[in-house]
Design brief:
- By secondary structure, this protein is α+β, with helices and mostly antiparallel strands.
- The chain has six helices and 20 strands.
- 15% of the residues lie in helices and 35% in strands.
- Strands 5, 7, 8, 10, 11, 12, 13 and 14 form an eight-stranded antiparallel β-sheet that branches.
- The N terminus is likely disordered.
- It is found in: Mitochondrion.
- Belongs to the AIM24 family.
Length: 323
């Protein structure tokens, strides 16, 4: 059961309104850092790779993919192994590093200071709304309007999520920053598929996006690291999410299977199940240090964070106890 201080009809009408472009501001040249009122300097082109490198290594360094040989060693029956990418289609997990800029209906954004100190800077037009997690505002223009809403639900209560929702309305500039040291990225929703993220990964979204808590089954809730309740993102719009550490992306081909250890998930649009990673018996799994993990099956995309918050907290406890 949900109580809201604002009517949903008004929110729906906002999502259907065509807003004017955000206000423009004077450009400051010769500034390598960029910003909403500054010149954006794209990263330099990649340096050419020496021909002395192995061809596969050179190809992987250029575009993150390699061409696997089609001839198989004796007795292995080819490289078309179930759960692996087809020959010539393998792509490694790729970085999402670098400033990210874009526009949406009624605004524009820039994600900067990536990997550990990320911030998201918005320019909103008159009347353009943006929903965000409470408490993540770093700064905003005096022309902006902030309105808080209180939404209670049993799922939010059980998930430990915040009951408040902050809605910022333009015109002006808005800067959002995550609570933890990590990265930010944007997901584009086109209405053709649904994404799922841990509830703590949510940062902000446009008014046309629907995000609601859904329940994972007992096994996923206990061992995925994302908890029993996750956000399911649907409809059309943009969603900005946060991570602990940098964010890397893995594209899965149809039928390809891929393990992600619990505590490293940021966003995914394909199904997974919990399985034991290490082969062999219980002793093998215990000594390898890897237990149950999330096994994804393509096609789909998985975003992962490079640090585990629970592992980091445990390391701090150990360091504090030994000092």
């Amino acid at each position: 059961m949900v109580w809201s201080l604002s009517k949903k009809r008004r929110e729906d009408s906002q999502s259907e309104t065509d807003f004017a472009p955000p206000p423009t501001q004077p450009v400051q040249a010769n500034n390598p850092y960029g910003g909403p009122d500054q010149t954006y300097t794209p990263p330099p082109e990649k340096q050419p790779i020496p021909e002395a490198f192995d061809q596969n290594a050179a190809a992987f360094a250029r575009n993150g993919s390699i061409s696997m040989p089609r001839s198989a060693p004796p007795g292995q029956g080819g490289y078309n192994v179930p759960g692996a990418a087809a020959p010539g289609t393998f792509k490694g997990a790729s970085s999402t590093h670098g400033d990210n800029v874009g526009t949406f209906n009624g605004g524009s954004y820039r994600i900067s200071h990536r990997d550990t100190n990320s911030i998201v800077t918005f320019q909103l037009a008159i009347g353009a709304p943006l929903k965000a997690k409470p408490g993540v505002m770093l700064a905003m223009s005096s022309t902006m309007t902030l309105r808080g809403e209180f939404k209670f639900s049993v799922k939010k209560f059980l998930a430990g999520s915040k009951f408040g929702v902050s809605t910022y309305t333009g015109p002006g500039e808005l800067i959002l920053a995550p609570f933890i040291l990590g990265d930010c990225m944007v997901l584009q929703l086109h209405g053709d598929k649904k994404w799922r993220i841990p509830h703590e990964a949510f940062l902000a979204c446009t008014s046309g996006v629907e995000h609601d808590h859904v329940t994972q089954d007992l096994t996923k809730g206990m061992f995925s690291g994302a908890g029993f309740f996750v956000y399911e993102l649907s409809k059309v719009g943009l969603v900005w999410i946060q991570s602990f550490g940098a964010i890397i992306k893995k594209e899965l081909a149809p039928g390809e299977r891929y393990f992600v250890d619990n505590g490293y998930l940021v966003a995914w649009d394909c199904d997974f199940k919990i399985e034991r990673v290490a082969s062999g018996g219980i002793i093998s799994g215990f000594t390898s240090g890897e237990g149950l993990s999330c096994k994804f099956t393509g096609p789909g995309t998985v975003y992962m964070q490079t640090r585990n918050l629970n592992g980091f907290a445990m390391a701090l406890k150990v360091s504090t106890a030994s000092s």
